[in-house]
Amino acid sequence: MRAVVINEYGDVDKLNFQEIETPTAGPGEAIVKIKGAGVNHLDHDIREGISGFPISLPHVPGIEGAGEVVEVGKNVKISKVGDRVGISLLAPCNCCNMCRSGKDNLCYNGHFLGASMWGTYAEYVKCYESQLVPLPENLDYDKAAASHLCFGTAWHMAVHYGDVKAGMTVLVNAAGSGVGTSAIQITKLHGATVIASAGSNDKLEKARHLGADTVINYNSDDLAEAVMEATGGMGVDLVIESVGGKVLVKSLECTAKGGMIVTCGAHAGEEIKMDVIQLFRKNIRFQGSVLSTRLEMEHVFKLVAENKLNPTIHTKLPLEDVRKAGELTRDRNFFGKIILEP
Ligand SMILES: [Zn+2]
Question: Which of 15, 40, 268, 318 sits most deeply, having the most CB atoms within 10 A of its CB?
């Protein structure tokens, strides 16, 4: 099969489109023919060798994808050839305390697609049955490949942790990112007032089209001051944060009393200087979040199929143009999701 292989860490020129052996399914495993692979910033970090995941080279990247099951191994219980599926980044063990209490996104023994396992930048991927999430009939593969990580992650942040509801004001940072575009839609769907922030006016204009009520450029304006002005000095009830660094510090300044910051990323600065006094005097909750549960994934697929949520697809490229996708990701020169098609 044709796949993208990394033999050494580095820039986009380390992404090699080449022929490799097609995988076969072992016990409990399935082979999925990839119809669309979602490109994520983690793919960039994995290629650069800065992901924090233990990767062994050579490696096939790609942490998100959708396709058709073409082979199942022994002991596969439910999935069958011909099933249309999304593939979860995390293969949960379904046995640990976290899995057994419905928190499979926090599985202690999980395997990670495109990280500890070979990923979706290929014609076929081998995965565990526990990763397969059935797609609703009318959900196409591109939308599925663009939905699952971003809408799933944003749903877990805004709904599970943030308890978003009508009457709340929500600040969504990195409004042009996959999680940002998803969070704007999810929080609007729940009736919240949404303030979107990003580093370019072009992205902010698009955020407005997605439903953001107010937009702020955090490169040209002081984020905290602009949010306080937009909220009549009250601040926001919930922050969906994935930037880190100065943006996170400023977000803390403009969170309302009793508000919450939910964070899932920190590419702009993983270590920050924080005024803890603000946390306790304003009763702010600071919550980390990662991925989503399987039930949440199934739910967002259903909402996308019903057109209640719409993934923003920046562009779709053939798999051989993987370096172009890598450049767009590296330079943050995109709005929404990039899809690779093998
Ligand atoms: Zn587990």
Answer: 40
Q: Is 240:188 a contact under the CB 8 Å cutoff?
A: no
Residue 107: the pLDDT is: 96
Residue identified by tokens 């729940």 is: 190
Domain regions of the chain by residue span: 2-134+312-341, 150-288
- DSSP letter string over 4-64? EEESS-SSGGGEEEEE-PPP---TTEEEEEEEEEEE-HHHHHHHHT-SSS---SSB---SE
Give residue 100 CA to ligand 1 midpoint distance, Å: 7
Residue 176 has pLDDT above 90, yes or no: no
Report the pLDDT averaged over residues 299-306: 97
Q: pLDDT tens digit string along 50-93?
A: 988 889 999 999 999 999 999 999 999 999 999 999 999 999 99
pLDDT at position 267 is 84
- CA of residue 48 to ligand 1 center, whole Å: 28
Run of H or E residues at 313: strand 313-318
Q: Mean pLDDT over residues 204-232, rounded?
A: 97
Are the folds of 2-134+312-341 and 150-288 the same?
A: no
Nearest CA to 128 among 23, 248, 21, 219? Answer: 23
Query: What CATH number belongs to 150-288?
Result: 3.40.50.720
Residues 24 and 95: beta-carbon distance below 8 Å:
no
Neighbouring CB atoms inside 10 A of 72's CB total: 20
| C-alpha 102 to ligand 1 mean position (Å) | 10
What pLDDT, in 10s, does the model give residues 259-274? 999 999 988 889 999 8
Token match 């072009």: residue? 202
CATH architecture of the domain 2-134+312-341 equals: Alpha-Beta Complex (3.90)
Nearest-angstrom CA–CA distance, 303 and 305: 5
Ligand 1 midpoint to CA 78 (Å): 19
Is residue 14 within 8 A of residue 6, CB to CB? The reply is yes
